Amino acid sequence: MTQSNTQAQAQTTERLRWFKYVKPYLPWFIIGPLLMIVEVIGEVVMPKLLAYIIDFGVKHDMAEAPAWLTWLYDVLKTDSALVVALAVGMVLTAVLMMIGGVGGAYFGAKASVNFAADLRADIYRKVQKFSFSNIDKFNTGSLVTRLTNDVTQMQNFVNTLLRMALRSPGMLIGALIMAITLNGELAIILAVAIPVMLVGIFVFIRFGFPRFSAMQEKVDGLNANVQENITNVRVVKSFVREEHENARFAATNADLKRAGRRAMMVMICMSPLMTLCMNAAVLVVLWFGGNMVLNGTMLVGDLTSFVTYITQILSSLMMVTMLFMQASRAMASGRRIKAVMNEEIDISDLNAAFPDKQVERGEIEFRNVTFRYYKNSEGKVLDNVSLKIDAGSTVGIIGSTGSGKTTLVSMIPRLYDADEGKILVDGVDVKDYSLYNLREGVGMVLQKNVLFSGTIEDNLRWGDGEADMNTIRAAADSAQADGFVMSFKNGYESDLGQGGTNVSGGQKQRLCIARALLKKPKILILDDSTSAVDTATEARIRETFRGALRDTTKIIIAQRITSVMEADRIIVVNEGRITGMGTHAELLATNTEYKEIYDSQMEAAREQANVQNAIKKGEVKA
Asked: Does residue 433 contact residue 448 with C-beta atoms inside 8 Å?
């Protein structure tokens, strides 16, 4: 296939991409511009009617009047009646123009809003399919900008296009024909003015496009800054970093201001220069046209209408300029949107061998699994990991920060895919499940506990949208959450605020555990999810797991050895490798690293206990 054929296919694909959002609303996309044509016809006819009033209704000279106007004068008999008739014609024309203009604007707005809504929905759905590595390519602020500001730019362009695409060239052609018909000699002035304005349009677009692209990137940075700051406002306040964050925001805001000013400078310069060109053309017309009127070679009404037509011609060129400038902004936004839509999703279930299969038992096996976050780097997050976890067993994973514990369990529901090796669930490669069925069988309580705005009940129903209240309360009770929830005034109808700001860290963890329990998963992964819970409450949660989740495979990542001591098997991870595996007693006897962690934690616990006893005895002050 030749390069030209490839480019043609790519262009066809792009057109079809955007036409997808036009097709459902095609009648509106057609009716809107057609109604604008009605307005254009009125604008072209109106100056001619005014010229007839001036030349024949006021001057009382019908010698050069067209035949239809002479006939009308013969019927009406008087000059005043002719003026009234032409005035009525102008009023009717104005009414039609109003209908066309309002209707065109209405259908244009309706079409563009629906276009943008469908486009925004598709972008959002695409982002929802992103894997973690896909999301890493776009920062959150950039994705927010593309979903909001960039889509709005596309919407504005479509709206302007529907209103101006036929109106501007229609007015240009119609007014040009009328001007040439009125006076061919004066129309020569347009042969100079129009090319000058076209050159100006080209220059402004050339300078404008890269500036608008740069401005959108600065909007990304501002959104990212604002989102990060507002999301973490409690941290900012606790470290008294308001001044620092204000300075950071001021710098980002200044960058956007500079980029916006550079982009807007093109628009600022364009409008007066185009107006200057238009006014200069009008002055030349008035100079030469005035002399023609004085010489008797042109009627006053014709000169008046000619000035109106030349104004319409040059105004339509300015409209085209504005349309092209808006198109340059839309093109910049369109490229950013296409970058998201064209992003290849690296984790999907398109090639799943068993898309209908569900997780039934919860047996897990890692076979020589290797993983890197940065694929070209030599450093491995997981290095040739092999292990098997029996269905229904309880496995603890312990290791230093950054050892690869979270990455290891994230591969079970395919939040990441292994670079080498395989992960099997119930003897089936995780890549052969559909993502829905695989993740439906796995419940995760992540290290960073996330709750959403809404009530406690709304959040818990993420686990099971059909659960009745008794089931919800039973899950919350198993997670040791029912007690504190019922202590709230509105119980499970209590509003959590954005991100669960109305509950403590330990309460948030217990609600997240309850949400996972409602899912009734075959595999439950707890990633350091009881770190904010006191040891007594944690012990009761573990006791619940032993009873209610007897048939569920439970994987517990923890920093505290007491959290995993009773597990059927404990896995010690260090620098992406498994350095020990066994029960608590076996590891104490055989694994130096595990024993060092145990001894240091027990020593710390003993020291804390001694301090507490001393406080009780009054030997030291609290």
From this structure: no
**Cβ atoms of 451 and 499 closer than 8 Å:** yes
Beta-sheet strand order (sheet of 420-425):
382-389, 364-371, 420-425, 428-429
> Please, are residues 564 and 594 in contact by the beta-carbon 8 Å criterion?
no
For 34, 80, 227, 448, 501, the CA distances from 232, given in Å and listed in that order, are: 52, 76, 8, 13, 11
* Residue among 140, 114, 117 nearest 127 (CA): 140
Q: Choose the weakest-confidence range: 155-159, 305-309, 383-387, 466-470.
A: 305-309
306-311 contacts at long range (C-beta below 8 A, 24 or more positions apart): 306/179, 306/182, 306/183, 306/186, 307/282, 308/47, 308/50, 309/44, 309/47, 309/175, 309/176, 309/178, 309/179, 309/182, 310/175, 310/179, 310/189, 310/190, 310/193, 310/281, 310/282, 310/285, 311/278, 311/282
Q: Strand pairing partners for 524?
A: 443, 554
Average pLDDT of the segment spanning 57-64: 62
Contact 317, 270 (CB under 8 A): no
The DSSP 8-state label assigned to residue 455 in this structure reads: B
pTM as predicted = 0.73
How many CB atoms are closer than 10 A to CB 438? 23
The pair of three-digit structure tokens given for residue 162, joined into one six-digit string: 């529907």
Q: What is the DSSP letter of 299?
A: -
The model's pLDDT over 576-608, given as tens digits with 9 standing for 90+, comes to 899 999 999 999 888 888 888 888 888 766 666
Would you say the C-alpha torsion 207, 210, 216, 217 has a positive or negative sign?
A: negative
Distance in angstroms (rounded) separating the CA atoms of residues 390 and 303: 95
Phi–psi pair at 131, nearest 5 degrees: -80, 175
DSSP state of 533: S
Angle at alpha carbon of residue 482, lines to 480 and 486, rounded to 5°:
145
Helices (H) and strands (E) in the chain, counts: 21, 10
Q: Which residue has the higher pLDDT, 37 or 379?
A: 37
- Write the Ramachandran bin of 520: left for phi over 0, alpha for psi from -120 to 50, otherwise beta: left
Question: Would the pLDDT of 65 be above 70?
Answer: no
d(CA 604, CA 364): 35
Stated length of the chain? 622
Per-residue pLDDT tens for 156-175?
999 888 888 788 888 888 88
479 three-class SS: coil
Rounded mean pLDDT of the chain?
Answer: 82
Using the structure block, give the residue that is written with the tokens 């404008």.
208
Q: What is the largest CA-CA distance in the chain?
A: 123
